[in-house]
Fold these 2 entries.
Entry 1:
Amino acid sequence: MSARVLIVDDIDVNVRLLEAKLAHEYYIVLTAFDGLSGLARARSEQPDVILLDAMMPGLDGFETCRRLKEDPLTRHIPVIMVTALTERENRLRGLEVGADDFLTKPVDDHQLFARLRSLTRHKLLVDELLQREAQGRAWGIFEAPASRDSGTGARVLIVDDHDRNCDRISRALAAEHLPFSLSEVENLGSAAGASLEIVIVSLSMRMLDPLKLIASLRGKDNSKFLPILVITDEGDTDRARRALDLGASDIITRPVDLEELAARVRTLVKRKRFLSALRARLDQGFELAVTDQLTGLHNRRYMINRVRSFLQRAVMGGETHALALFDLDHFKSINDRFGHDIGDLVLQVFARTMAGNIRPSDLLARIGGEEFVLLMPHTGLAEASEIAGRLRRIFAETPIILPRGGTRFMATVSIGVSVNLPGEETEQDLLKRADLALYQAKARGRNCVMVYEAPAAPPAPFLAGLAAELAAGLAEELTPGGAQSLSA
Ligand SMILES: [Mg+2]
């Protein structure tokens, strides 16, 4: 997996050395020689990972990192702090200012590439989600970017068969999290798994194969995005690398520095919550993308897709599905007379009234200004026209009550009904036929239901004129208000 890596270091030789190593592994390398130009490059070039030297004159690595993590344009880019100092104060300081990881000089190649792989993987996921979120914001679906979380109060599962180690970690994390061990999982039941936010796995376990555990967590739907922090013995670099390759999120080496552990757990929990929040917002975005904002009904896009998928299945199974097209009567004059607020109110009353009176299996959508569609799966023409007739009546009897003064008035709706023809795969003709029937309903004086009936077989030419005459004659006898037939 290649990625664009920005190296920020004040010593030219260090930069060249890292650059050569990374280029050899086909990473694309960008460079900067001080904190300020590092910030500028990060903003303009949007690298996938930043390797940041801690000790630099002027703006040092810690301050640079803090600013990177404050800037909405760069805060999602993982930062690896590189320091010549092995003192824990510097490591902790790095994690406190938001560094995602750190390496000590001289940089070990295996560790460098393992961490780059792990962070690049995370970054790709975030990029994908952020891109979709940005699109959602451009469409006005989202109002503000997802916020970041404190990273405390997490349910932490500790998997270690060494009881004393397990206790020590558990006690250290208890101050800000809810740690529990594998032996407590049975008591906690499925609740533990459902709200679990991070797993800590000891690589020195004998009870079960920790690498297998990591692979199996990554393979399951409900844990594939769960952060996994691996605890490894010093010198066990080979297995540590394999753990990272299998999808472990981070590694800490024994003897475990409890403060460093706490800082790493916090970083991982924050990352997980950031991703979860992004995903939840996307789900909500999709919900909004298929919903009509004014009425809360489904919108045209959603309805068209649903109708199409029913029709495609009907081609195989030969089922009949009915569709009713509704158009509010005299809607323009309602708007002209009472204003658009009241027009909107009428649409909302209509939507609410219909939604409260349709069958659970039927699907209602607003597909245009005052146009609605009711999809009635597995329903024949006779039944569909009966349902449409009932809905028409209910709406005609529902008063619209004006907000000020409580004045009320009545509104009505015209409805055209049609069903799919054998072999019909797209919604266009079905909608067109419903529209023809609706047009007839309008022409007949509104507040009525008309049904489009396809002829059983094409009439012979000399019968066609007769059929038209019959239809015209029939139409004259019918009164508005009932469900009527309209011939092709
Ligand atoms: Mg330096």
Entry 2:
Amino acid sequence: MTSPALAAQDPAKKALSWTHTARFLTTATRLDQLPPNELPEIAFVGRSNAGKSTAINRLTQQKRLAFASNTPGRTQHINLFSLGPKDEPDALFADLPGYGYAAVARAAKLRWQQVMAEYLAERRSLSGVVLMVDSRLGLTELDQQLLAWVAQRVGTGEVRLLVLLTKADKLNRRDADRALAATQEVLGQLATDDADLSLSLFSALSRRGVGDAAQVLHGWVHPVASKPESSDPSGAAPP
Ligand SMILES: Nc1nc2c(ncn2[C@@H]2O[C@H](COP(=O)(O)OP(=O)(O)O)[C@@H](O)[C@H]2O)c(=O)[nH]1
Ligand SMILES: [Mg+2]
């Protein structure tokens, strides 16, 4: 039996109860429509169909927070969600437009590039990026383009990065290991002493990696409270 005290200390549960507080704040089609924000902002990005909406809904344990299976290429909006206590929000999630649909017109592609590049390179409040990648496809050219836009800020540690290899339930063990290794190799190019990079398999279906991902995000926003190494494992009282 788990005691209430132990449950309260379970870092995954604590992180998931925090992500569960996410509620819709506002939507924007242009960057200059986004409200100025002093809170740490975590952006969710990925190709259309990568499983981004499903992952956000799973992470927040809400059915329709981010709408799954939107019309391809039609969702050019940035949706903001706020988290934490209602009267004292402590972070924002930003759901950014999906990309990579061949059918999208050239003008729309160029507009997407401009919006994403500017947001990733210049949004002051941006403190973390969650890149969702279909584990069977791996990092595509557009994913790597996107990483290049934010690479400088990742290198200095100003912006943290979590890459989730989605739909991991569709891979066997060997293919999952391969997907991890291939992605890790690309991410190695971003590694510096100050960079905060995480990579994980994720499945909204099997729930693999959901608690871990929530913990990473919670840790970005609440660094001291959620870092296990900050507590004394021996449980001994300080001298
Ligand atoms: N097997 C499996 N399918 C998933 C998973 N997550 C999403 N999908 C499916 O992938 C498709 C695209 O998901 P969606 O969340 O709309 O992708 P988005 O375009 O990136 O927002 C849908 O048919 C989902 O049901 C998962 O963890 N496992
Ligand atoms: Mg979507």
